[in-house]
Design goal:
heterodimer; A: about 270 residues; mainly alpha; two-stranded antiparallel sheet; globular; B: about 375 residues; outer membrane lipoprotein receptor (LolB), chain A; 2 domains; 6-stranded antiparallel sheet; about 25% helix
Chain lengths: ~270, ~375
């Protein structure tokens, strides 16, 4: 984990994740042209009136593509990268158990996702308040209440709770990406190949989610419930898809981490 | 062939563990889906029908989904009607009684909520960030998503099919309820509906699923069902509309109420396509329903600025109809048939009726406008 934060690429990836919402905010703030209702990124049409909701909009911007790509790249490189650089052999003779190594890699990925989401939330909150304003009440330093998707007011405390729930859910949502890439990473010495394999699975899943003919398998696709965290911003909160999304992510995690474990435990380290 | 070693044996055992886990996890939804509904979920058709029809007083809350497979183009000014028939609609429902309920239509990162509250209707649209209060009585209105919630939809279908035969069908488990089913078969040869299947909780009569199958079709083209439902009364807070400073007030929330308020033009003819006009609504001259039961159709007379785009869209996708006093086009989707006639004004006619019926209507409208 210490290695994760010593590597410049961790900060470059987090910086890129923070940059996307910032660029979108600059365009929105300068043109004041929101996407039409129901189109464009989630919450983008609402942030013009209250920037305190911009962290939620930022999550919707990075969630479908940028964040999964980052996780796939890091997870794909986690074992394969060590193997291709020749450090995996030295790691394993320290001695470090292979199961422990896999779990440590997964924990490091979860920490990275938390770090990246935290950075995006913080920078997007500052961006939102600076560029769109938070409509603060006179003499009060905290942003004013924001309106939920259901029109009911969310207090600043409620907004923080919902954003925290969003962070937890997104971390869970990234578990399947990490598990797919980690499994592929135990099959090959090419980190790029493992990352591309994981992305191919995710793109296929995204295509099938939108296909009515694939309705029978839709509930079991890894990306089906990725945006279910939006339901935290309804009133009453809708937890139906959140529960299903968390469940399906845990299933993918168990199966693919198990497959990674089964393969990695007896794999020959040739490099 | 390589000899078996201790290492390869361990590898096999690990893969077997993984495969067993995959097998167990994959079999869970299959086993749950194959559970048969208990045999007790059959009920006397007349009793079940009466219970469903009398279920308006039952409180419930749940999550419903409707799914339409009709190949309908989007009609300008009328997308609220066409969209549910050709796509999936997700709804959250809280129903206390006829005068206190709320239906949220959820679509990705937006939602549109309708409240019935203290004699008024409130509509919250997150996309437009607008709360609208509809005041006064609405003698006529266009269909709204709340009409697709299974109990409301089934009661409406039962009312329309009052003269049609009902027969029992196999029960099924819907949203955790062992529901009893009925099949309604329309007697009229003019309708495109082959049968309507409805299921309800046999003890309370709360309808939980409806399926409409067109003539010649093998599977339903329109379905509405609960994915989860509880027969409990919702909190008063939940069915109270949000209190916002900026509330738009209107007495004409949709196109039909807007044009009916204008009261221009004479009354629609008493007979169209050989079918009698149904009960008149006082003051409403630009819309009417004709025919009986599930073979009813609706006629709307629209000013050109409201109807021209819809006519063009129907003419693009439909078949031309030759008229003496204008132009016409019929769009048949298998279940819903739509006729558009452009003369001095635009007529839109729609119903679950055979295209031949609407061609007769087109001929009458052409003569009327000549």
């Amino acid at each position: 984990m210490a290695k994760l934060f010593r590597r410049p690429r961790t900060y470059v990836i987090a910086g890129l994740l923070c940059a996307l919402p910032f660029v979108v905010a600059v365009f929105l703030a300068t043109t004041r042209i929101p996407p039409p209702p129901g189109q464009g990124g989630a919450f983008l049409s609402a942030v013009l009136s209250n920037g305190a909701l911009y962290p939620a909009a930022a999550m919707a911007l990075v969630m479908p593509v940028f964040l999964p790509v980052s996780v796939a790249v890091l997870a794909g490189d986690s074992v394969a990268g060590e193997a291709s650089q020749g450090t995996l052999r030295y790691l394993l003779i320290r001695p470090v158990g292979r199961t422990r190594l896999l779990v440590a890699k997964l924990v490091a990925l979860i920490v990275f996702v938390l770090f990246a989401i935290g950075a995006v939330l913080l920078t997007s909150f500052l961006t939102g308040i600076t560029m769109f304003g938070g409509e603060p009440a006179a003499g009060v330093a905290i942003p004013a209440d924001v309106t939920s998707l259901s029109g009911v007011t969310i207090t600043p405390f409620g907004l923080v709770l919902r954003l925290l729930a969003t962070v937890v859910y997104i971390v869970i949502s990234m578990l399947s990406v990490a598990a797919i890439a980690l499994f592929l990473s135990t099959l090959t010495d090419s980190g790029l190949g493992a990352a591309m394999g994981a992305l191919a699975v995710l793109v296929t899943s995204q295509v099938l989610v939108t296909l009515d003919a694939a309705a029978a398998i839709r509930p079991y696709l890894p990306t089906r419930y990725w945006l279910a965290w939006i339901d935290f911003f309804r009133d009453p909160m809708l937890l139906r898809d959140v529960e299903r999304g968390a469940g399906i992510q845990l299933v993918f995690l168990v199966v693919l981490l198990g497959a990674a474990w089964a393969n990695f435990m007896t794999r020959d380290i040739t490099n | 062939m390589q000899p078996s070693t201790v290492v390869s044996g361990q590898a096999w055992r690990r893969w077997v563990v993984v495969i067993v886990i995959v097998g167990v996890l994959c079999s869970v939804p299959i086993v749950l889906g194959l559970r048969p509904a208990p045999a007790a979920t059959t009920a006397d058709p007349a009793t079940l029908r009466a219970r469903m029809a009398a279920s308006a007083g039952l409180a419930f809350q749940g999550y419903a989904q409707s799914s339409g497979l009709l190949p309908l183009p989007s009609l300008p000014n009328l997308t609220e009607i066409t969209r549910p028939l050709s796509s999936r609609t997700e709804m959250r429902v809280w129903y206390a009684d006829r005068d206190s309920w709320r239906v949220d239509v959820i679509d990705g990162a937006t939602e549109r909520d309708t409240y019935q509250y203290r004699g008024s209707q409130f509509i919250w649209d997150f996309g437009d960030t607008r709360l609208t209060q509809v005041i006064g009585e609405q003698p006529v209105r266009l269909p709204r998503p709340a009409d697709l919630v299974p109990p409301d939809l089934v009661r409406r279908l039962l009312s329309l099919a009052a003269g049609d035969r009902a027969e029992p069908i196999t029960g099924k488990r819907v949203a955790g309820i062992d529901a009893a089913g009925l099949r309604l078969r329309p007697v009229s040869p003019d309708t495109t509906i082959d049968h309507v299947d409805v299921w309800a909780d046999p003890s309370s009569g709360l309808p939980v699923q409806a399926e409409v199958t067109a003539k010649g079709g093998e599977r339903p083209v329109f379905t509405s069902r609960f994915l989860s439902v509880e027969m409990t009364r919702p909190d008063a807070k939940t069915i109270t509309p949000p209190s916002l400073d900026d509330v738009q007030v209107t007495d004409a929330p949709d196109l039909l109420s807007q044009i009916s308020a204008r009261r221009r033009g004479g009354q629609l003819p008493a007979t169209l396509g050989g079918e009698q006009r149904n009960t008149e609504v006082a003051g409403l001259t630009s819309a009417g329903t004709y025919g009986d039961g599930l073979a009813q159709f609706v006629v709307l007379r629209l000013p050109g600025r409201f109807g021209n785009e819809a006519y063009d869209r129907i003419a693009t996708y439909g078949a031309d109809v030759h008229l003496d006093g204008g132009h016409g086009a019929v769009l048949a989707t298998g279940l819903l048939t739509i006729l558009a006639v452009r003369a001095e004004r635009i007529y839109l006619v729609a119903g679950f009726v055979q295209p031949a019926v609407l061609r007769r209507v087109a001929a009458d409208l052409g003569r009327l406008e000549r």
